Amino acid sequence: MIVLGLETTCDETAAAVVERTVDGETGAARGRILSNVVLSQIGEHAEFGGVVPEIAARAHVEALDRIIGKAMAEAKVPFTALDGIAAAAGPGLIGGVIVGLTTAKAIALAHDKPLIAVNHLEAHALTARLTDGVDFPYCLFLASGGHTQILAVRGVGDYLRLGGTVDDAIGEAFDKTAKLLGLGYPGGPLVEQEATRGDPQRFALPRPMNGRRDANFSLSGLKTALRVDTPKALVCAGGVAANQAIRKILHRVAFEVGTELVAPPPALCTDNGAMIAWAGAERLALGLTDSLAVAPRARWPLEEVTKRAGEKAVAR
Fold first, then answer.
1. 163 by DSSP, 3-state: which?
2. CB atoms within 10 A of CB 314
3. 109-161 confidence digits (pLDDT tens)
4. Taking a C-beta distance cutoff of 8 angstroms, is the pair 130, 268 a contact?
5. Would you give the distance in Å from CA 246 to the centre of its chain?
6. Cα–Cα distance measured from residue 208 to residue 217, given in angstroms and rounded to the nearest whole number
7. How far apart are CA 158 and CA 299, in angstroms?
8. Residue 208: pLDDT band by 50, 70, 90 thresholds?
9. 36, 30, 41: which is closest to 4 by C-alpha?
10. pTM
């Protein structure tokens, strides 16, 4: 199964081609990235200290056709060989989401291929299955510019929210910190870079909600989350999951409860087309496709991504 995936929810214009196969002996799904092209818009937004939605949407319009062409050329796959076209249909900046989803609809219509409208968060949630072949269920720490959540991933379209931030997302906090300190944009990598040269004992920073029994939001909640529904692994995903200090903490948490941490390569933690293509392939394998009337969504909580009525989303 070969799927083209488009990602345009924020400030990366991305397209990728991914192949999904099933092991004949174990029945386990395996993925292979045939191409993964990402164009960052950091230069366009740096002077504003954050993403400007109108500029982002216009940049997607200008670049997406070229990025798709490059992805298809690198994959050495014609459109006729594709089994489906996937696009991030939300959540995200609505202008950019419209660009990617409309383009995917046009390709699907022109080549008579199934369309899969992918939830951007579901794509992050399933990336560990592409990179590491993780089996369901597992515990997910989803950390990005707009989201900080702990979820039990029980299957495609089957997500249980265990906890999350009650205010800022972790990536947003990094960006605000960088702006306050005059470090520049994007804030996350710059804060991490400065932190490696700092003294962790210099300031007594608060740890809000630490020690509570729920997981809203403290890292201690991960230990409880790991025991829910026997997750087979702790997975971290999302742009902030590329932060090495956070990975070190999660490795320790996983070790303490006797499981393993699975973290995709940094390039597949940040927004990319491969994760969209893979999530599309996972859904397509279950017969979960969408009509050309599917609408883009600025808000789309992951727990609202469900399997079709009467269908059971089961994948090995």
1. strand
2. 13
3. 999 999 999 999 999 999 999 999 999 999 999 988 777 888 999 999 999 98
4. yes
5. 17
6. 8
7. 18
8. low
9. 36
10. 0.87
